[in-house]
Amino acid sequence: MIEVNLYKNVRDFWRDRNSEEFRELRRERMMEWRRENTSVRVRRPTRIDRARLLGYRAKQGFVVVRTRVRRGSRRMSRPNRGRTGKNLATSDITSGRNLKWIAESRTARKYTNLEVLGSYWVGQDGRTKWFEVILVDPTHPSIYNDKNIGWIRSKNQRRRVFRGLTSSGKKARGLRNRGIGAEKARPSRNAHGNRNK
């Protein structure tokens, strides 16, 4: 019962982001996180309630990494007249992906032997967003022998974040909707376009 109340209190604290305590804590964290590297491995999740909902367990084989991503898509609009520069003064990083998916992909490229289980938002300022990405080692015995998380060692789950199999990837691919209006989303937009219609 004490553990359930703890998670409930943490969840309520993160929901009320206009409270005095949350604003002060966020201000201190932002000043500290801005000085850190882009990806930082953390000892324990900042939001333990969200991490456990996504499948995190405090055991060997689980790794939590806080990743920083620049907000926004294009820095400048594409010029439509006159002389243009070599790169046309654009900087597009999203290309149809949301920032959470981008954070997961960059983290997976750094930790090549781990698979991405999921991620959640932990903070943002005017130019940056921070996400904590939960990674799993599929070859670790504690993961390999766990019936709840052992599915991640399957061949179908290899490099799953780069194939859009995480929750944020499925959302960006339009797989949250079914039926009318989602006829072109499955099995994927690319596969639907290649069908001989």
Topology:
Blueprint: H1 2-15, H2 20-34, E1 39-42, H3 48-53, E2 62-70, H4 99-110, E3 115-124, E4 128-136, H5 141-144, H6 167-172, H7 189-194
Antiparallel strand pairs: 1-2, 2-4, 3-4
Describe the 3D structure:
Helices cover 32% and strands 16% of the residues. The chain has a four-stranded antiparallel beta sheet with strand order 1-2-4-3, covered by helices on one side. It has one domain (2-77, 85-194): 3-Layer(aba) Sandwich (Ribosomal protein L15e). It is globular and about 65 Å long. The chain has helices at residues 2-15, 20-34, 48-53, 99-110, 141-144, 167-172, 189-194, and strands spanning 39-42, 62-70, 115-124, 128-136. The model has no long low-confidence stretch (mean pLDDT 89). The termini are far apart. It is an alpha+beta fold.
Helical content stands at 25-40%
Q: DSSP strand (E) fraction?
A: 15-25%
The CATH architecture category equals 3-Layer(aba) Sandwich
Give the class from helix and strand content and strand pairing. Answer: alpha+beta
Q: Round the mean pLDDT to the nearest integer and report it.
A: 89
Q: Could you give the distance between the termini?
A: 57 Å
Oligomer: single chain
CATH homology superfamily name: Ribosomal protein L15
Report the major sheet. Answer: 4 strands, antiparallel
